[in-house]
Amino acid sequence: MEKRLFRDAMGKFATGITVVSTNYQNEVKGITVNSFMSLSLDPTLIAISIDKTASMYDILQEANTFGISVLSENQKEESMIYANQKEVDQPVKFTDLAGTPVLNNALVQLSCEKESAVEAGDHMIFIAKVNDLKIADGNPLLYFSGSYQQLDK
After folding, report:
1. CA–CA gap between residue 106 and residue 75 (Å, rounded)
2. Nearest by Cα to 107 from 13, 15, 17
3. Residue 75's CB: how many other CB atoms inside 10 A?
4. Residues in CB range of 84: below 8 A, 6 or more apart
5. What is the pLDDT of residues 51-93, one digit of tens each?
6. Which of 15, 65, 82, 105 could form an SS bridge with 34, CB 3.0 to 4.6 Å?
7. What is the DSSP string of 79-138?
8. Are 61 and 95 in contact (CB under 8 A)?
9. Could you please report the per-residue DSSP string of 15-84?
C-alpha cells in the first residue's frame, strides 16, 4: 500500500487539534498534535502519538509531565507555530496548570503526568494520567482532509 494513499485515507477522519507543551531547560517547548484521545475515566488517562522524527520526541521521552491544550477555532496561528508552519511574530502566551504549561484561551487545558510509552511503528504513544483540567466555552479548531476546518454555526 502506498504511504500517501494511507495518509489521505486517514485524513478523512476529522480530528481536533492540540498543542502538547512542557518545560524544558527553563523554556516552554511545544508541538501541534492531532493524534490525541481519551483512554480511561478511572484512572483518567489520555494518549498522544508522536513521530520519532518530531522535534519534541526526545524532550517528551525525558519529560515526566506535560500540558495538553485543545485548541479553539481562534487558535489556528498557535497550531501553525507549533507545527513549524509559521514563524513566531510575538511570544505565545502560556499559563501554568498544576505545574505544566498550557496555552491561554484553549478550549480545554490538561495537566498530565506520563505513565508509560509504547512504541508503535514510526511513532511513540505516550500514555498519561490527567491530574488537573480546565474547560472553556467555544468551538474547536478541526483538521480534515489536510486542512484546517471550523464547525458550521
Report:
1. 8
2. 17
3. 23
4. 55
5. 999 999 999 999 999 999 999 999 999 999 999 999 888 889 9
6. 15
7. HHHHTTSS--SSPPPEEEETTEEEETT-SEEEEEEEEEEEEETTEEEEEEEEEEEEE--S
8. no
9. EE-EEEEEEETTEEEEEEE--EEEEETTTTEEEEEEETTSTTHHHHHH-SEEEEEEPBTT-HHHHHHHTT
